[in-house]
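Encode chain A's predicted structure.
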Amino acid sequence: MARKALKLASWTGMALAASGFFLYSNKYLDPNDFGAVRVGRAVATTAVISYDYLTSLRSVPYGSEEYLQLLSKIHDLFMSFDDTPLGAASLAQVHKAVLHDGRTVAVKVQHPKVQAQSSKDILLMEVLVLAVKQLFPEFEFMWLVDEAKKNLPLELDFLNEGRNAERVAQMLKHIDFLKVPRIYWELSTKRVLLMEFVDGGQVNDRDYMEKNKIDVNEVRLSSHGCCARDTGFVGAAHRGQISRHLGKIYSEMIFVNGFVHCDPHPGNVLVRKHPGTGKAEIVLLDHGLYQVLTEEFRLDYCHLWQSLIWTDMERVKKYSQRLGAGDLYPLFACMLTARSWDSVNRGISQAPVTATEDSEIRNNAANYLPEISQLLNHVPRQMLLIFKTNDLLRGIEAALGTRASASSFLNMSRCCIRALATHKKKSTCSSFRRAQISFSEAFNLWQINLHELILRVKGLKLASWILAFLCWLLPTPY
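Encoded structure for chain A:
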């Protein structure tokens, strides 16, 4: 009987482990989301706010007399408070409210019991990972547990999130198409965060962008007097610009500053019209999870991307190995770029993505799972969240119907050039040497600008030919 029970437990553990691994590897399940979603929804959000603000009851049943009393106290803090959340995730949900001074705010409230539940979630994850290791020794996923142990407490501290938001807003204040909501510290706690309410549509919401005419292009006239209206051409241009804006923001974070927002899923990236200029603006939300890159890692990563963009395969190998890839550097390069090794060798900015290549990558991914597992276990821990960030950004590109273009890669290259030049200038005491570095930086940036101008001229010429042909096909109005 004992043997049968042991055998049953073993098979059950295998099924749970395999299911957990499958769900995580296919992005159906987030490591922070094993138990948090199941708890807290039945407890009133307003009760949580009252607890943190007024140090009142720890747990109040929904609809009870105590709940109604606490609900009345909410009006001491807000002129109005919407009970229905604007959005909900595994750790928290957000409500719209109005303060007594008339400011409209977003109130982010942590779900009750998440703090206590998080340790159980991590323990469950650790058990599953150990079970997978016993059943499949070639898979190494203990890094997943280590990252959860490090990052989850930071995500649960909303004051830390507020500090991150202010830091990134100051760091990227020169980017006029980025909006980071202001934090209201006077009413924020570790479990409740008050911030400026900013309206917008999710970055993958094509209908919202078309409906609100975000970044409306000028009506373009051909030599025949025909025009291209706001059709699919313009819609694609809108989405392409949003994708390029997002790429520029993240290039600045990763290559120049080494302080990276690591959760850019569509719910955290909104788009809107700037109230003053009417131009497209990206609103970045949820600043709980950031990766701080060491200078050594950041500079090696800069060199690696420069080598990938300019197809310098010797340096691709060198800097991939410096980042822990070892002999798996071809796989490492493919994972970073989401391109095949053949495309990496031909130049990721030169060879367009094809449906055949996408299919090849998907089909081959399963065959390389042991190697991928080995690679993830050996690269620096900073690289793990960078991988996650890259994947989420590519998911947004796919939703927008865009892929990283030559222009996107040139923006990345600009950031790499600036970052490496800044480091070299800090490392020398010679004024002459600093002047040399500045001249070289300016010359390299000028080369990139010239190259981009040539690409745009070619693109405009092609576009004008297409429009002229379309206008020739259309009947002339009388």
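Confidence is low (pLDDT under 50) at residues 1-50, 53-60, 216-236.
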